[in-house]
Write a structure and sequence with these properties.
Blueprint lengths: L3 H9 L4 H7 L4 H9 L4 H19 L6 H10 L6 H11 L36 H15 L14 H9 L1
Length: 167
């Protein structure tokens, strides 16, 4: 809870700001800086980082979470911690995608008869060959591209990893 409104009331009533700040253990500089309405250096830096985080997240098509965004920003020369990035991503409503573990609910009986498909689903048809190619390309580009950073490779891309192994 901030004590600045209490100090403001004391000031308005004609009391000594210095004494109020001493009693509430707040520096006068902090009180007057907050009163000016300008954001502090941390808030300015947070705004800059949030823009860069949003850009990295957008470039990854929303797949990168905190560890990968942190790795990309460090590669770009940004000096910031993982928890700060986590806080800023949480405040901006950004979240990386992750695969969910499949929950096994029943153990199928291998001797059971196959159930008839009453809905007549057709999983093999695409509107066109071009649509099928596009869907396959999007999947491969999203999960197996050469630019995606992999945690198992030390947050390096597969191309960088292969280059490092060859050298």
């Amino acid at each position: 809870m901030t004590v600045h409104p209490f100090i403001e009331v004391e000031k308005r009533d004609g009391h000594n700001v210095k004494r109020a700040c001493e009693l509430l253990q707040v520096s006068r500089a902090a009180f007057f800086a907050r009163r000016s309405g300008r954001p502090g250096p941390r808030a300015v830096r947070d705004a800059e980082l949030t823009e860069k985080i949003a850009e990295v997240h957008e470039n990854s098509r929303g797949t990168y979470g905190v560890p990968r965004v942190h790795a990309v920003l460090q590669r770009q020369g940004e000096d910031c911690g993982r928890r700060r990035i986590a806080r800023l991503m949480r405040n901006a409503g950004l979240q990386g995608r992750h695969r969910r573990r499949r929950q096994l609910t029943t153990i199928p009986d291998p001797r059971a008869a196959a159930r008839p498909d009453l809905v007549v689903r057709d999983f093999c048809s695409w509107p066109s060959r071009a649509a099928a190619r596009t869907a396959i390309f999007d999947f491969i580009e999203g999960w197996y591209n050469l630019h995606r950073l992999h945690s198992s490779l030390g947050y390096r891309s597969p191309a960088e990893y292969e280059t490092a192994l060859a050298a």
